[in-house]
């Protein structure tokens, strides 16, 4: 089998979430108007806000439906399945797809769409979930809604916007708050969403190699684990993983706790295989693939990250450790 | 000593082929059968007159073409695109506007004629728009969610649309616009009506078909597909529904009480390759089918004989159509290969 490095034939898809007023539209306008040498098809919900005339902008109505696949939390965006199918007919006209979600949307159904639908999976890869947050108003948002918390929990990249509207201390406090929910996302502090486009798009963030390689605070034991707040935790083991044991464990875990587990990501060293195995899940919907060989001399450490509610650290650790090959 | 006949034998001896350099979205002959059109992902339509080796292209949509059907008139076609336009393409290659829909994609088109009445329908967002022979808009039919497929019945009396949680069947001439609602939970992604007008079948997101028998409201569930069904086509006599989405041509029996509780007939399977497109023959109990590796075959349903038409290696087959008299087959692939094959006696 050929080395399955992230397939470059697949169209990278960036999901852009964030509350109304956080700066999503500013960012989208920059992506569409700046000269960065790449063309993006943009799927949006309210065309009026975007001042750019572009035949690659697609207006859609979010249509979420439940899959009848026995998985209670599996909801997907039917409109995206249709639109991606349509865009693939002129695949040569753009380099990537950006999907904007409405302010209040939970990113779960968008992400699950890219796991669940075979045709979408065959043509695209989820590159990253980018969440734009407003440094000034985020604390309030987190108090009054679960969606704001979910959007941070799902994110691979967070644009901490309007940094100029708060004091350095406030900014630090907001960042700490974000880290408490999701300590694995890359954070960009910005004003007017002025992060370089190249740092947001086509990052391969969802394939998580890079994210896991720069994980801060590994193995810290500072979380309150038995409450409704979203937290994140990670585990690593040094001996190789038995694929069968891992599948049995993660399968049962996702089936039982999938509603609480927003994101699960892992890079695994399977016993007897020279390649890294990348695993990821959104709620109960999981996917995995080999992503190329371990580097020469690189320690073959298997790591897994959970972002969700009601995470039981000792139980998760014991479970992951029990997957090591005997 | 045996001599292997190339899988391309029919294509080479009876076909005209071209590379069109864009995703072939749909193929359709006009109603006289004298020309075929291929609608492409680059927004152009190629017109192939019978026997011509050069197929001129006309610019039709600013973006991608998404749907194509023969016009209700004797010649020409109607097409929809992601530029929100419903267009008419004349046999001479002239393009005119029928309607435009703001920002919305025109994802589905269909037409009907019995020689006198003419109807053109298109699916745009949650709406189905119906036009008469003079391009006057007869009706705009609203659905609870985006329309994913439209079909006229064989008499042009009704039009059916698939959407979330079922399908709606409308009487075209009705004064009051209330559809018959066919309900089944889930996302329905395409629709077909049997020639006798009694069965409506939808394809579903969950790799299955759902059907309703209109006379008694009986539900029909047809499942077991490894992928989604994109193409569904009843045989002319209505006995079989041929479907894509499996590693063979899957045919459901619509005689002797219907498909409930019966296994389908499978043809041209065994290679582990998905059937991606098909079209039943307009007269015979036969079906042409294309696969994801580019293979195109013609299958005789009763004898289960398979005739290879084109070999593998030209991209997943994405479009297919018969001429109305059943002598010519047009097909195209995602990678821009297209051909017209002449099956008439020589």
Automatic annotation (TrEMBL), chain A:
It holds the Pfam family cobW. Belongs to the SIMIBI class G3E GTPase family. ZNG1 subfamily. The lineage of its organism: Bacteria, Pseudomonadati, Pseudomonadota, Alphaproteobacteria, Acetobacterales. Zinc chaperone that directly transfers zinc cofactor to target proteins, thereby activating them. Zinc is transferred from the CXCC motif in the GTPase domain to the zinc binding site in target proteins in a process requiring GTP hydrolysis. InterPro entries: CobW-likC_sf, CobW-like_C, CobW/HypB/UreG_nucleotide-bd, P-loop_NTPase, Zinc-reg_GTPase_activator. The keyword Hydrolase applies. It comes from Limobrevibacterium gyesilva. It catalyses: GTP + H2O = GDP + phosphate + H(+). Keywords: Chaperone, Hydrolase, Nucleotide-binding. One of its GO terms (molecular function) is hydrolase activity. This is GTP-binding protein. Residues 230-324 form the CobW C-terminal domain.
TrEMBL record, chain B:
Residues 282-344 form the Anaphase-promoting complex subunit 4-like WD40 domain. Gene3D superfamilies: YVTN repeat-like/Quinoprotein amine dehydrogenase. SUPFAM superfamilies: Calcium-dependent phosphotriesterase (SSF63829). This is WD40 repeat domain-containing protein. Coiled coil: none annotated. It comes from the Bacteria. InterPro entries: Apc4-like_WD40_dom (IPR024977), WD40/YVTN_repeat-like_dom_sf (IPR015943), WD40_rpt (IPR001680). SMART domains: WD40.
């Amino acid at each position: 089998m050929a080395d399955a490095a992230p397939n470059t034939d697949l169209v990278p898809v960036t999901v852009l979430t964030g509350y109304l007023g956080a700066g999503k539209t500013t960012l989208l306008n920059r992506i569409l108007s700046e000269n960065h040498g790449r063309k993006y098809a943009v799927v949006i919900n309210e065309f009026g806000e975007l001042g750019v005339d572009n035949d690659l902008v697609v207006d859609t109505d979010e249509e979420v439906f439940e899959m009848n696949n026995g998985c209670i939390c599996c909801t997907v965006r039917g409109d995206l399945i249709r639109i991606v199918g349509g865009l693939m007919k002129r695949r040569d006209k753009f380099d990537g797809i950006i999907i904007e979600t409405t302010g209040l949307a939970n990113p779960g159904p968008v992400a699950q769409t890219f796991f669940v639908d075979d045709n979408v999976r065959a043509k695209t890869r989820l590159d990253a979930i980018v969440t734009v947050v407003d440094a000034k108003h985020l604390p309030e948002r987190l108090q009054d809604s679960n969606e704001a918390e979910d959007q941070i929990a799902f994110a691979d990249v967070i644009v901490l916007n309007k940094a100029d509207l708060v004091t350095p201390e406030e900014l630090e406090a907001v960042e700490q708050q974000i880290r408490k929910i999701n300590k694995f996302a890359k954070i960009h502090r910005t004003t007017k969403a002025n992060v370089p486009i190249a740092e947001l798009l086509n990052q391969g963030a969802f394939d998580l190699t890079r994210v896991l390689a720069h994980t801060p605070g590994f193995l810290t034991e500072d979380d309150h684990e038995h409450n409704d707040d979203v937290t994140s935790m990670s585990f690593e083991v040094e001996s190789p993983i038995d694929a069968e044991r891992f599948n049995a464990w993660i399968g049962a875990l996702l089936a039982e706790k999938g509603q609480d587990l927003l994101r699960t990501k892992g890079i695994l060293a399977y016993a007897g295989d020279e390649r890294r195995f990348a695993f990821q899940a959104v709620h109960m919907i999981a996917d995995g693939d080999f992503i190329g060989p371990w580097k020469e001399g690189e320690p073959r450490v298997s790591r897994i990250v959970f972002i969700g509610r009601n995470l039981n650290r000792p139980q998760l650790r014991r479970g992951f450790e029990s997957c090591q090959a005997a | 000593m045996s001599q292997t006949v190339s899988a391309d034998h029919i294509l080479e001896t009876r076909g005209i082929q071209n590379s069109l350099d864009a995703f072939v979205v749909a193929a359709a002959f006009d109603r006289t059968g004298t020309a075929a059109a291929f609608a492409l992902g680059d927004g152009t339509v190629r017109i192939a007159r019978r026997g011509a080796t050069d197929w001129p292209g006309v610019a039709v949509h600013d973006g991608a073409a998404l749907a194509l059907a023969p016009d209700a008139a004797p010649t020409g076609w109607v097409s929809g695109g992601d530029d929100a336009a419903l267009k008419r393409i004349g046999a001479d290659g002239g393009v005119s506007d029928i309607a435009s829909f703001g920002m919305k994609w025109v994802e589905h088109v269909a037409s009907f004629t019995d020689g006198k009445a003419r109807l053109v329908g298109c699916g745009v967002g949650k709406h189905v728009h119906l036009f008469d022979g003079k391009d006057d808009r007869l009706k705009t039919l609203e659905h609870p969610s985006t329309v994913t497929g439209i079909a006229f019945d064989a008499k042009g009396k009704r039009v059916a649309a698939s959407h979330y949680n079922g399908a709606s069947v409308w009487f075209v001439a009705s004064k009051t616009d209330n559809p018959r609602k066919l309900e089944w939970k889930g996302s329905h992604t395409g629709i077909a009506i049997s020639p006798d007008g009694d069965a409506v079948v939808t394809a579903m997101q969950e790799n299955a078909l759902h059907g309703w028998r209109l006379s008694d409201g009986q539900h029909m569930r047809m499942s077991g597909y490894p992928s989604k069904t994109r193409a569904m086509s009843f045989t002319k006599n209505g006995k079989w529904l041929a479907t894509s989405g499996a590693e063979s041509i899957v045919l459901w029996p619509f005689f002797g009480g219907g498909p409930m509780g019966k296994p389908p007939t499978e043809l041209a399977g065994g290679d582990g390759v998905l059937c991606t497109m098909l079209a039943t023959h307009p007269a015979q109990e036969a079906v042409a089918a294309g696969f994801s590796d580019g293979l195109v075959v013609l299958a005789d349903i009763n004898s289960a004989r398979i005739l290879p038409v084109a070999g593998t290696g030209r991209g997943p087959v994405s479009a297919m159509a018969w001429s109305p008299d059943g002598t010519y087959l047009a097909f195209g692939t995602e990678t821009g290969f297209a051909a017209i094959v002449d099956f008439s006696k020589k």
